[in-house]
Amino acid sequence: MDNITVLNKSISTKKINQDDYISITDIAKYKDEVDANDIIKNWFRNRNTIEFLGLWEKLNNADFKPVEFDLIKNDAGLNSFTMSAKKWCEKTGAIGVISKSGRYGGTYAHKDIAFEFASWVSVELKLYLIKEFQRLKEEEYKQLGWDIKRNLTKINYRIHTDAIKNNIIPNIVNQSQINYVYASEADILNIALFGQTAKEFKESNPTNKGNIRDYADVSQLVCLANLESLNALFIEEGLSQAKRLIKLNQVAINQMKILVDDKNIEYLKAKE
């Protein structure tokens, strides 16, 4: 769950089944802090609201109940007509609106519906809400992009270490020997790409937190992921450490020349 601030009001958002939902209870509080639920009920009494909600459900919800919806739509707009978010969901099987009671409850709506409700409350509020929501999504995409790049390296590292385990480490060794081989193999990549071992980096940068790879830029991370896959292949082919280091260094030089000039890489850097 994330909160965004719109016109000095905190509005919560959360993921439900991978879709973005926004608290329309918080949106209603922009108009009336005390009677927010009544504002939502008044919106649900509107015939245009019911038609909009029904159309959204037909487009997005295979389990929506059209017969029950038609009965509700026929009564919508009458003086005697009453409707709430909870009642709407129970009768029609709607998924676009979620209403729960309790301390951490409230009424949430899919972003498409929440923006429509915000427009009914205040056009100004809707415009600022869309702007802040887009900013939130940009931050999420930025973080997602970085996570994907880091996870790609981690996945390739698993391939890399499995190849070491299956092809380099002798059958009978103690744990310290195993750890040494892993560290040694990791430093082959460090030397090929960064020109130094992890220990040398740490000694020359004693105040830095993390390891040498934590300070790699986007181009270096992409290249490192490729080197890990190649090193695993070279290990399978039985190449010695010395030969692998020379090959990996040549690949690193060629790939970095290409990546440094790649406009897409520059775009990713700008997003960091």
Automatic annotation (TrEMBL):
Keywords: DNA-binding. The keyword Ribosomal protein does not apply. The keyword Glycoprotein does not apply. It comes from the Bacteria. InterPro entries: KilA/APSES_HTH, KilA_N. It holds the Pfam family KilA-N. One of its GO terms (molecular function) is DNA binding. Residues 1-136 form the KilA-N domain. This is KilA, N-terminal/APSES-type HTH DNA-binding domain protein. It comes from Arcobacter nitrofigilis (strain ATCC 33309 / DSM 7299 / CCUG 15893 / LMG 7604 / NCTC 12251 / CI) (Campylobacter nitrofigilis). The lineage of its organism: Bacteria, Pseudomonadati, Campylobacterota, Epsilonproteobacteria, Campylobacterales.
